Amino acid sequence: MKTLIFRLSKILGLFYLARKLTADKTRILCYHGISVDDEHKFRPGLFMQKSTFARRMQLLKKWKFTSINLDDYVAQREQGQVQKDSLIITIDDGWQAILDGMWPEIKACQFQATLYLSSYFIQHRRPVFKVAVFYLFWKHNRPFKPAQDSCLEEYRAQELDAAKLLEVVKQLGSDYEQPVLKELCAYFGESIEAWQQSGKFMFLSPQQVSELHKQGLAIELHTHKHRFSEVGLEEARQELERNHQAIVEMTGKQPKHFCYPRGEFREEQLKVLSDMGIQSATTTDNELCSIKHHTYKLPRIMDNDNISELEFEAEISGFMTLLRGLGRRGQS
């Protein structure tokens, strides 16, 4: 039914009309990683197929949106008017596969882009433990039984699901993550070495971040360990300071824009951003961005591999923003 409504709306010219009516709103797009193997089937909101991303960029170029960066956007806001039909491309986290799966297509379309970088897994390069664990249990669909020589001494021969295993390792400490992941991969017949070689569940290296920066990709803040809303004010500040220092060391540039991990924050944490001189912060609220939005609460269009081309156009055109606005008025 939704597809039919979108098709009819497009045929009737409502997508075109919506774009005209929302031309003063900025399209801030949010992406994460690129699928190396089957990760897009596991978490389509986190990993997108390379072909899907390439098609998105080609459509944006065809639709003639003007690509700007966050510095431009903030400066234009301060002047009271943002360029019409403007587009900001943002990428969260720092997954290695964006190097070949996103950046070449962004450059080919002559777009600008920002990478919100979490620095811990840049500095400690190994498959991201939590995501990798959930993937293995999703793919193999059976519990894990640690062997008699397992580092998980108290749980040998017990059956553990993903949630229980993560709870156990959290209690033991991060030093157990890599040994447990190696055991888990061996148990399920996966090669962690192959993952590392292909970049599966891996973050970029410091050298790759530096090179991307030199090529024009803006590197901005996303905390050190991907933690913000769940920690206290001082720890939140430390997360940003460590992240800031790591980015400066890799790029030589002072980052001044921020993306909340998972889009979550507490109101009192906004002062931390202000004290650090951060100029903008983006969320995961799925919406076009108006000049009326608080600069620390900028919404984005959350694209993913499960969104059809027609659904993508409905969001980008502003049709969905207008539809949601009508829905809110109807409820008030």
TrEMBL record:
GO terms of molecular function: hydrolase activity, acting on carbon-nitrogen (but not peptide) bonds
Name used for this protein in its record: NodB homology domain-containing protein
Compartments where found: Secreted
Domain NodB homology as annotated: residue spans: 85-332
Gene3D superfamilies, alphabetized: Glycoside hydrolase/deacetylase
Superkingdom, taxonomy of origin: Bacteria
Regions crossing the membrane: none
A GO CC term attached to the entry: extracellular region
InterPro entries for this protein: Glyco_hydro/deAcase_b/a-brl, NODB_dom, Polysacch_Deacetylase
Keyword presence, Signal: yes
Any matching Pfam family: Polysacc_deac_1
Gene Ontology annotations of biological process type: carbohydrate metabolic process
Keyword terms, alphabetized: Signal
